[in-house]
Amino acid sequence: MLKLVRSYLDNCTIGKVYYKGELIVYTIERPWLNNQKNISCIPAGIYGIEPFNSVKHPDCYLLRNHALSVGSDGLMQRKYCLIHIANFVEDINGCIGPGLKLHPSKWGVMDSRKAMVKLRGLIHVNNISKIEII
């Protein structure tokens, strides 16, 4: 299982994804805004992660937790919370953007495309299907 450890700031949420204690990637999300759809980071919990493709976000991952009403099903409070390529808060709407490094002068991450390649490889090779977000 992957583990995402987050720090909640006023203007964003910064995180680190670990696998077996090793730092894999950094993350950027919107700040916590009471779980409001498309403008808040997603709530803490354990999520299933599954491959997802769309025109806007190809080769990414969908997060799913029915108990927290997150998924792609019709009645979910938070639909299509994804891990996808994104470097800055303005690039995401209630999703998670991975990066290889934190950006040095702006709240965000760097090398998001490379981070997604790294994450996809890790998930595929290790058959990972869950992420714990704290």
Can you characterise this structure?
It is a single chain. This protein is mainly β and 134 residues long. It has one domain. The protein is built from one helix and twelve strands. It has one helix spanning 112-126; strands at 2-8, 13-19, 22-29, 45-52, 60-64, 70-71, 78-79, 82-83, 97-99, 101-102, 109-110, 130-133. An eight-stranded mixed beta sheet has the order 8-5-4-12-1-2-3-9, covered by helices on one side. It has a two-stranded parallel sheet with strand order 6-7. A two-stranded antiparallel sheet has the order 10-11. The radius of gyration is 13 Å and the shape is globular. The mean pLDDT is 96.
> For the report, how would you describe the main beta sheet?
8 strands, mixed
Portion of residues in beta strands equals 35-45%
From the N-terminal CA to the C-terminal CA, the straight-line distance is 13 Å
Quickly give the structural class: mainly beta
Quick overview of this protein structure:
It contains one helix and twelve strands. It has one helix spanning 112-126, and strands spanning 2-8, 13-19, 22-29, 45-52, 60-64, 70-71, 78-79, 82-83, 97-99, 101-102, 109-110, 130-133.
Question: Secondary-structure map with pairings?
Answer:
Elements: E1 2-8, E2 13-19, E3 22-29, E4 45-52, E5 60-64, E6 70-71, E7 78-79, E8 82-83, E9 97-99, E10 101-102, E11 109-110, H1 112-126, E12 130-133
Parallel strand pairs: 1-12, 6-7
Antiparallel strand pairs: 1-2, 2-3, 3-9, 4-5, 4-12, 5-8, 10-11
Keywords:
8-stranded mixed β-sheet, mainly beta, globular, two-stranded parallel ribbon, 1 helix, 12 strands, 134 residues
